[in-house]
Amino acid sequence: SAVISQKPSRDICQRGTSLTIQCQVDSQVTMMFWYRQQPGQSLTLIATANQGSEATYESGFVIDKFPISRPNLTFSTLTVSNMSPEDSSIYLCSVVGLAGVNNEQFFGPGTRLTVL
Amino acid sequence: RKEVEQDPGPFNVPEGATVAFNCTYSNSASQSFFWYRQDCRKEPKLLMSVYSSGNEDGRFTAQLNRASQYISLLIRDSKLSDSATYLCVVNRAGSYQLTFGKGTKLSVIP
Q: What is the pLDDT confidence band of residue B17, given thresholds at 50, 70 and 90?
């Protein structure tokens, strides 16, 4: 399977600041997604990162809070803006459309964010 | 009703035991079903897809009952390394977006 990397792997941030998380895949993929996993919870989809156009956000998530970019088929960023302690979570990117595994979804290692 | 429901456990079983996890989903139009495994402080990893006819991969067997909207995972001859949280995952009809259950925690005890 492809290698999916995320930067940073973890960070501790002050409230009111913003953090941009990068997701890089070593091969082209059809789709990229961003999820959040709050402590003790399962994964919740934030948005679909669309290449060359605005992301598609799920209910409860808005572009002003979680701006997303996807400039090409291998890279995406998620920004967590104006952070508060409630944003402390693990943020994961995922991809679909790797060669030979059309509808299976693979996850990056996650970015563990703590907001003080 | 939650979209994907699982018994959170924990399931504490001895090595060598057989253990079964169940999951129900609410959207009858869902078309793809998966079991993911998540180790502590790690990302979820695909364990197996679940097919209508049922499928087996070594010690793992997955079953799907569309009429009852029910998915199961059977683990035979449990190993210590099977200790993890098992996530039942269902796609949204017509899309690649996934809905995750909260997971069932398994601890295999020596």
A: very high
